[in-house]
């Protein structure tokens, strides 16, 4: 029997502007980081190797430019979300629609008006917007002219951007998050921090200096949000993947703990507790990191703590101090060793529903603030049958097992606000730029080479999720 979900639980779906909007030059929008990342395996190489130049190559295909054309089809798509019964819809605002270069003094009215139309359409259908302020779409101008988040001046530009959207949408949006998967900057600073590492050996100082600037910017945005919209809630957003020790050998247990503290907790500690955690001091010392701070920075962090933690959960991670004799895994920008007890998706991401319950308990035990699962889902190859149907039982199985563990965590005492399944409509993959890696309840006829009619089709999971929402999680 399914565990009872609380009344008012926020069921819905999640997307990001850069991965589904398209219209990359419409409405006076500027170029962002996603616009200069080509599709396919080349994108993974760019994200993992030093020296990227943030230029568009006319000989390459850039899937985010058109994506699935939500920019023109938002009414059709929102009607489908409403048909499923969404209570909330998580999306992001493209920074370059509001400030095309990022450093302008006045916002772009065409961009502001576009999101007015989107939010009005959602509200018309009884769907609350959940908005990420920055989701892997930093203006390229800020990357090239300022060096991305390494430059303290970017805090001012972000604050101006946040103030503009808070003032504009204060009557329409009451759930906000500052930076998407902020801790991803540890693995891929290109998307998260707005710069490419030039030499692997030099990555530590600029990475953590950039984090500090993001932390200050996030705290300032939280304070602004409270001043402009006292009734709103604003959270942080992290990738969370519980780290298991490969075995009970103490060295492996310690190694897993160190990996978990740095990746899962460092960013959240600063944003939720308002201060740098003790464990980071040794890490800074061992990697010769000396943060440049201004007077008052630590006070700003203390005053700008978030109301809730949004997080993505796709998989767990298993770690061993010496990986040389173990089969490695690659999943969601994280590397570890193969867990013999878990199966993997088509893209090699290990599937671990119980890991979600573990994550919820660990996060709630550490922070005691409400939690919001804002990304979870299965990227898979979908086949359109001769009758036009998409029988995605594998996705239903994946989601059902994770939702059961959410129910168990609520029973454990975890305060869980809601759940937005990632890529509720098929969209461009962030890490590989593929369309074939599909997450949606809604199929979009668009392919890795850019061909397709963009026709929308309901998958089998569409009707299943509608029933889940209708029953508030009782009918899984």
Automatic annotation (TrEMBL):
What is the designated name of this protein? 6-phospho-beta-glucosidase
Q: Which GO terms describe its biological process?
A: carbohydrate catabolic process
Q: Which domain of life is it from?
A: Bacteria
Cited SUPFAM superfamilies: (Trans)glycosidases (SSF51445)
For this protein, the Enzyme Commission number is 3.2.1.86
Spell out the family assignment given in the record's similarity comment: Belongs to the glycosyl hydrolase 1 family.
> Which species is this UniProt entry from?
Oceanobacillus profundus
Which keywords annotate this record?
A: Glycosidase, Hydrolase
What GO cellular component entries does it have?
A: cytosol
* InterPro entries in the record: GH (IPR017853), GH_1_N_CS (IPR033132), Glyco_hydro_1 (IPR001360), Glyco_hydro_1_AS (IPR018120)
Active site residues of this protein: 375 (nucleophile)
Q: What are the protein's GO molecular function terms?
A: 6-phospho-beta-glucosidase activity
The record, for PANTHER family, names: 6-PHOSPHO-BETA-GLUCOSIDASE ASCB-RELATED, GLYCOSYL HYDROLASE
């Amino acid at each position: 029997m399914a565990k009872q979900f609380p009344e008012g639980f926020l069921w819905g779906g999640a997307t990001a502007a850069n991965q589904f909007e398209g219209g990359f030059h419409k409405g006076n929008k500027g170029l962002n980081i996603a616009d200069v990342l080509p599709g396919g395996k080349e994108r993974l190489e760019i994200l993992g190797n030093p020296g990227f130049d943030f230029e568009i190559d006319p000989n390459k295909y850039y899937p985010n430019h058109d994506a699935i054309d939500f920019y023109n089809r938002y009414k059709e798509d929102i009607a489908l979300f409403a048909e499923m019964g969404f209570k909330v819809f998580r999306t992001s605002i493209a920074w370059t629609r509001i400030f095309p270069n990022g450093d302008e003094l006045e916002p772009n009215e065409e961009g502001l008006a576009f999101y007015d139309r989107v939010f009005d359409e959602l509200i018309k259908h009884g769907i609350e917007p959940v908005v990420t302020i920055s989701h892997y779409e930093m203006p390229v101008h800020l990357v090239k002219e300022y060096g991305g988040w390494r430059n303290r001046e970017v805090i001012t530009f972000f604050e101006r951007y946040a103030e503009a959207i808070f003032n504009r949408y204060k009557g329409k949006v009451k759930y906000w998050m500052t930076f998407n998967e902020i801790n991803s900057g540890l693995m891929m600073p290109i998307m998260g921090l707005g710069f490419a590492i030039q030499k692997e050996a030099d990555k530590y100082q600029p990475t953590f200096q950039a984090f500090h600037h993001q932390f200050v910017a996030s705290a300032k945005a939280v304070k602004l949000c409270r001043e402009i919209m006292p009734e709103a809630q604003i959270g942080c957003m992290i990738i969370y993947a519980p780290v298991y020790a490969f075995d009970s050998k103490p060295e492996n247990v310690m190694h897993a703990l160190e990996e978990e503290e740095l990746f899962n907790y460092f960013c959240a500690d600063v944003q939720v507790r308002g201060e740098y955690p003790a464990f980071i001091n040794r890490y800074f010392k061992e990697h010769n990191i000396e943060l440049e701070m201004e007077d008052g920075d630590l006070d700003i962090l203390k005053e700008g703590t978030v109301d809730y933690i949004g997080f993505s959960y796709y998989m767990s991670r298993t770690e061993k101090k010496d990986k040389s004799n173990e089969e490695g895994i690659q999943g969601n920008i994280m590397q570890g060793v193969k867990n013999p007890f878990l199966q993997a998706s088509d893209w090699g991401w290990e599937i671990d529903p119980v890991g979600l319950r573990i994550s919820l308990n660990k996060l709630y035990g550490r922070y005691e603030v409400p939690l919001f699962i804002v990304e979870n889902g299965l990227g898979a190859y979908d086949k359109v049958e001769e009758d036009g149907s998409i029988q995605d039982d594998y996705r239903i199985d994946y989601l059902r097992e994770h939702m059961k563990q959410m129910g168990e965590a609520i029973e454990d005492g975890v305060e869980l606000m809601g759940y937005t399944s990632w890529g509720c409509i098929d969209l461009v993959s962030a890490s590989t730029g593929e369309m074939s890696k599909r997450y949606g309840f809604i199929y979009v006829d668009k392919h890795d080479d850019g061909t397709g009619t963009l026709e929308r089709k309901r998958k089998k999971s569409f009707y299943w999720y509608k029933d889940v929402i209708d029953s508030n999680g009782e009918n899984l």
